[in-house]
């Protein structure tokens, strides 16, 4: 099967975008994994699929598959690429669109300066909805909120990672570090991702506070490994920093692939939506022969 695709990136988080508005490709998990493979496929952190609106309340449906082929709930950097894609392909002329994602909907706005703002909705703190199972764990009070100490089974001796837990439509564990450049992302990331307290696994964020309006962030993404940027991870990190009393309402997040701006009025209203603004760039377009993989 030969299918057309578009390669895009947002702050270095890269995607293969597929247009299924005129028909489904019917790809298997293994075929999504093939597309994401950087040696044999196109190469991407996630595969994004554009589908027609399933209900009148939204303009499109937006599906995300990680590099491991598994479907996930949300992707902020991908959402920015999504709205640029539907404009560039002539699928809409509206500057603001609402799209269905797994478990809800989000609003996307293409700005005059070329950047894209995504209304990511309100963060979720209810542990069962993250989902997060606190059985056997004792929360530690911090700045009016709490962190949860996770025991990590490292070679030699276990370590403790006190993480803030939040969902941005997908689960996140945010760990404060002194320096993201020396943070043990490669060693601790997969252990946090697969910790038994997270029944659907988790994205592990390593957050360095520069000042109340600037942070640095690295994210070990569930099913993808460390990426150059993670939109929902940036949102979760800023939300956690605000709830821990460390950040103001608007924060620039420096990821390895670029800068994102996150705004959340959570100090006044925990149900306030998180707004994420950042770049979205088309890299190239093409077609690829996808093998018959079960």
From TrEMBL:
What enzyme category does the UniProt record give?
Answer: isomerase
Pathway(s) per entry = Amino-acid biosynthesis; L-lysine biosynthesis via DAP pathway; DL-2,6-diaminopimelate from LL-2,6-diaminopimelate: step 1/1
Positions of the record's site feature: Could be important to modulate the pK values of the two catalytic cysteine residues: 172, 221
List this protein's GO terms for biological process. Answer: lysine biosynthetic process via diaminopimelate
Write down the EC number: 5.1.1.7
Identification of the protein by name: Diaminopimelate epimerase
NCBIfam families named among the record's database cross-references: DapF (TIGR00652)
One GO cellular component this record assigns the protein to is:
cytosol
**SUPFAM superfamilies for this protein:** Diaminopimelate epimerase-like
What is stated as this protein's family in its record?
A: Belongs to the diaminopimelate epimerase family.
Main localization category:
cytoplasm
- What PROSITE patterns does the record tag this protein with? DAP_EPIMERASE
Partners and quaternary state? Answer: Homodimer.
Role this protein plays: Catalyzes the stereoinversion of LL-2,6-diaminopimelate (L,L-DAP) to meso-diaminopimelate (meso-DAP), a precursor of L-lysine and an essential component of the bacterial peptidoglycan.
Q: Does the keyword Ribosomal protein apply?
A: no
**Native source species:** Malikia spinosa
The record's listing under InterPro entries reads:
DAP_epimerase_AS (IPR018510), DAP_epimerase_DapF (IPR001653)
Q: Which GO terms describe its molecular function?
A: diaminopimelate epimerase activity
Entry keyword set: Amino-acid biosynthesis, Cytoplasm, Isomerase, Lysine biosynthesis
> Does the record's keyword annotation contain Isomerase?
yes
Q: Which reaction does it catalyse?
A: (2S,6S)-2,6-diaminopimelate = meso-2,6-diaminopimelate
Sites where the protein binds substrate: 13, 46, 66, 76-77, 170, 203, 221-222, 231-232
Location in the cell reads: Cytoplasm
Task: List the catalytic residues.
Answer: 75 (proton donor), 75, 230 (proton acceptor)
């Amino acid at each position: 099967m030969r299918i057309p695709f578009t390669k895009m990136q947002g702050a270095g988080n890269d995607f293969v975008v597929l247009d299924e508005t005129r028909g489904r490709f019917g790809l298997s998990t293994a075929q999504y994994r093939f597309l994401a493979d950087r040696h044999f496929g196109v190469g991407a952190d996630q595969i994004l699929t554009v589908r027609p609106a399933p209900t009148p309340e939204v303009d499109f449906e937006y599906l995300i598959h990680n590099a491991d082929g598994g479907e996930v709930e949300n992707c902020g950097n991908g959402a920015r690429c999504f709205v640029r894609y539907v404009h560039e392909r002539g699928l809409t002329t509206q500057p603001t669109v609402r799209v269905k994602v797994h478990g809800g909907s989000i609003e996307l706005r293409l700005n005059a300066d070329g950047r894209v703002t995504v209304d990511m909705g309100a963060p979720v703190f209810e542990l069962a909805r993250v989902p997060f199972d606190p059985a056997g764990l004792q929360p530690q009070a911090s700045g009016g909120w709490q962190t949860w100490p996770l025991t990590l089974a490292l070679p030699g001796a276990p370590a403790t990672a006190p993480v803030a837990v939040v969902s941005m439509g997908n689960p996140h564990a945010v760990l404060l570090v002194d320096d993201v450049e020396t943070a043990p992302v490669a060693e601790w990331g997969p252990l946090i991702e697969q910790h038994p307290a997270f029944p659907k696994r988790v994205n592990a964020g390593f957050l360095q506070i520069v000042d109340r309006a600037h942070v640095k962030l690295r994210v070990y993404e569930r099913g993808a490994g460390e990426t150059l940027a993670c939109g929902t991870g940036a949102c979760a990190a800023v939300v956690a920093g605000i709830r821990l009393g460390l950040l103001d309402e608007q924060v620039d997040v420096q990821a390895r692939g670029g800068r994102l701006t996150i705004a959340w009025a959570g100090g006044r209203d925990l149900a306030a939506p998180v707004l994420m603004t950042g770049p979205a760039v088309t890299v190239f377009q093409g077609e690829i022969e996808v093998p018959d993989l079960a």
